[in-house]
Amino acid sequence: MLLPLLFLFAAAGLTDATFQIQITENTQVNTSLCPITYYGQEYTTIYINFTGEHMFVCFNGYYNPESNGDCIKAPNTENGTYFGLNDNNNPSYWSYVTTVVQSSVNTTTNDATFYVLSNIDGTAQSVCLNWWICLLHFSGFGVKPGTTRQSLDNCTSLICSNTSVSSTKRCDSLSNVTETNRLCTVTGPTVIDSKGSLNSVSDRCEYTLLQDQSAGFTLKANFLERRRRDVSFVDSVTLDFSQGDDIQLLQGHRVLVSSPVTLSGSVQTFNGVGLSKDQTGVTANISLNGSPVSLFFDGTTAQIYMDVPVNLKGLCADSSSSSSSRLSSDSSCQEQYVDPADDTINSTAVIEQCNILKSAPFSSCNAVVDPEPYMAACRNTLNKYPAVDGLRCQFLKAYAKACQKITHLFFSADHPEPICQDKCSDHEFCGDIHGNTDCRCRAIYASEYTEQNRLGGPTVCKDNTASLTLVGCLLKENGIDYTHLHLNDKTCTGVMDPESHMLKFNFSSDSCGTEVTTNNSQVIFTNAVVTRNSSSDLITRQDKVFIEFSCSHPTPELQNVAFKIIDNWIMIVLQSGEWHYSLTMKAYSDAAQTQLLGSNSDVRLNQKIWIVLETNGLDEEVVSVVTDSCWATSGNSPSSSPRYDLITDGCANAADGTVEVMGNGQGTSNSFSFNMFEFSGKEPSEVYLHCQLQLCVKENNSCEPGCSGSARRRRSLRYRRGAPALISMVWTP
């Protein structure tokens, strides 16, 4: 609610009050003898109450910070005020007064009918006036109709006409410049250019407001939707420089100059731009070719004031140039939407609300700043978009700010920006949710879920795990407190992302109370997001929530991996001393060694195969072939990892019950068998089999390795000098 605090000067000499009462507690006062006009409505009752530092005079009930009542706020120094009625036998001088004793603050309504004034001795003076007072911000006093008051710079004068219309006059060269030609206002979807023409932005693109190519400067505005997809609002402005860092003015009075910066009331300079911030918004002052330009942005309205008009391009120069001023290369921002009409909007009430700009106190500025463009912007927006989230006052504030800049009329708005705007994510905006200010979902983003009656995305399934993500702002809008949600197992709660405000739940098939069922060829994992239900809670204000989600997978089957031998058999030619011989390795699928495995043969996991190692060219009466070791690797190098041993020291791997060695060291050939396998943790890949063999001189010694029972030990065998033979074979899936 816009609360004008208008500074007045009154020099009315009055007799002592006919009666005077002291008010120290909440009091309702009848003012029917001197009705109070506030925002065009006449009130005959006022409500006075105190809240610590302030006194409030309200017109439709006692002050309540959670309501939208019409009130005037004044300092409270003594927890008391005086109410008096003065009677000079003239009905036009009946008056009521509420005064904070010993306060020097003058407070009034939008006209001079009702105001507060303390004399030096603390007594109350008041008057029920039937004329308006022109207001002068820089002096803190009002100017009586038919008079002129000079400003502190001795160059600007405020002229108050006999009809209480104010205007300014300067003594320097700027007096020939039309004031309104210096101002451009962007509020909601509307751009009011420096000529007073207006146009509305109907999409969600970025536009050029001002551009000075010679200075390498462009002022951009980005528009985004809020509650409706078909109404856009100015969401941020960017000062773009051809050299140096850009400056972004964002929601929540945030400023980015390549990174966030902290501002205060003191001016800080970045890239030649003076930046400052107060409770109303951020101000940026720059110089374009020697001409000062001031930008103000409060999150809802951007106002650009040029001290001397310059030749610039953009919407502020010509609001109808939207097509040429559009900067966004992504055509998706131009997509048009048509949402259903809001049947809660009363067009007659909208007109009355917007026409306030022609009533006091704004009427004192009408002769200098034309209210029609602001009223048209107000009507165009509020006839499509509900008067929520502070929108009721937005256009009044925009006009008041324009008046303050041009005429020095001052309308102070006790309406700070919502505090949530410095934490909302990109798909959110700051608005009202069930009476509280919080981050709401932007309409286009929300429609992706609401059109399917969902609060979040679909379940993401992977192996035996799943996740579900819910949209934080949708939960808030539906009155759901995410801290009250959990899965079937109440210890499994969601994790809220602090940046995106997305709530994520994770579960696996064997955790968080997941239910596992089978349906024909499917295995289904089911869980649910539910509201915390504590038997110790006597009452609850949370709606019950039950969001069931599940994942289904095919029923696991015994997966057979088939391997093929690349070559039917392997032969190598070797030399050991005087012995020249060949060594072959063959694989068979039967114990009789009649079914040779070839390149077209499939070998299944756990299928037994027989490997035959035989030589040609050796005298079996003199030497024997001993298979010293055999092992498998997943790579072609015998030394690669991982490695799995089948035979070590001439004996079968005791840990693998499928390995059996036959005829080792008994002649010029031997064999062994094992069940086929693959390496764990890997996709099906080649299995390389490597065997290392030695030649053993028989003479009077046995060449058979000692492999019997627990007494197994390696015998001392006489090997023929020379490198051991190494032969390899590979299976591929």
From TrEMBL:
Protein origin, superkingdom: Eukaryota
Annotated SMART domains: C8 (SM00832), ZP (SM00241)
Coiled coil: none
Gene3D superfamilies xrefs: Zona pellucida, ZP-C domain (2.60.40.4100), Zona pellucida, ZP-N domain (2.60.40.3210)
ZP domain boundaries: 460-714
Keywords linked to the UniProt accession: Disulfide bond, Signal
Protein name according to UniProt: ZP domain-containing protein
Species of provenance: Oryzias latipes (Japanese rice fish)
